[in-house]
Amino acid sequence: MMSKRLLILWLCVCCFACDTGEIMKPYAYLSMKFIEDEDFVLMERIEGSWLPNKKQASLNAYGFKNERLSIYLPGLIQTGRYPNLTIKNIFYTDGADFNPIKVDSGFLEITQMDSIQIGGTFRVTLEDEYNGIDHRTVIGNFIIYTR
């Protein structure tokens, strides 16, 4: 009887001690795939940083099969298409035999930007020379929150 009371008391203390105000929100979201693939790439870890005072955004995502996507956007002033995309701005490798050396064509468009978050979409064709010249198009969208 005493152990039941202690158990109930312990459960009540644990429930009242919970603070729902400190629930951790994700700081970045990413959805992406090769245009010809049916399924989106499942990323294991996504790290994002949006620094509105420096007008700079970055996102790094790592997949289960060594996939990696990097987005780096300095000098963000307004929404719209990011000018002059290079491999330094957006890079994706599938972790196997696609390791691009340059952005061939496409766009990265900022669709939302404020002091709390930045988000956008992209459709970029990347060029790889690992096993002969190969061009693959990556599509997706992202959101990065300030911390």
Number of strands: 9
The class by helix and strand makeup works out as mainly beta
Helix tally equals 1
| Share of β-strand residues | over 45%
Mean pLDDT: 85
Uncertain regions spanning at least 5 consecutive residues = 20-24
What is the number of independent domains? Answer: 1
Percent range of helical residues: 10-25%
Order of helices and strands: HEEEEEEEEE
Measured between the Cα atoms of the first and last residue, the distance is: 48 Å
Lateral arrangement of strands in the main beta sheet? 1-9-8-7-5
Sheet having the most strands: 5 strands, antiparallel
Q: What is the radius of gyration?
A: 21 Å
Indicate the overall shape.
globular
Q: How do the strands and helices of this protein lay out in sequence?
A:
Elements: H1 2-17, E1 28-34, E2 43-51, E3 56-63, E4 68-73, E5 80-81, E6 90-93, E7 102-113, E8 117-128, E9 134-145
Antiparallel strand pairs: 1-9, 2-3, 3-4, 4-6, 5-7, 7-8, 8-9
In short:
This protein is mainly beta and 147 residues long. It is 11% helix and 49% strand. The chain has one domain (39-145).
Written account of the structure:
- This protein is mainly β and 147 residues long.
- It has one domain.
- Helices cover 11% and strands 49% of the residues.
- The chain contains one helix and nine strands.
- The strands form two sheets. The chain has a five-stranded antiparallel sheet, with no helix packed on it. A four-stranded antiparallel sheet has the order 2-3-4-6, with no helix packed on it.
- Strand 2 (43-51) and strand 3 form a beta hairpin.
- The protein is globular and about 70 Å long.
- 18% of the residues are buried.
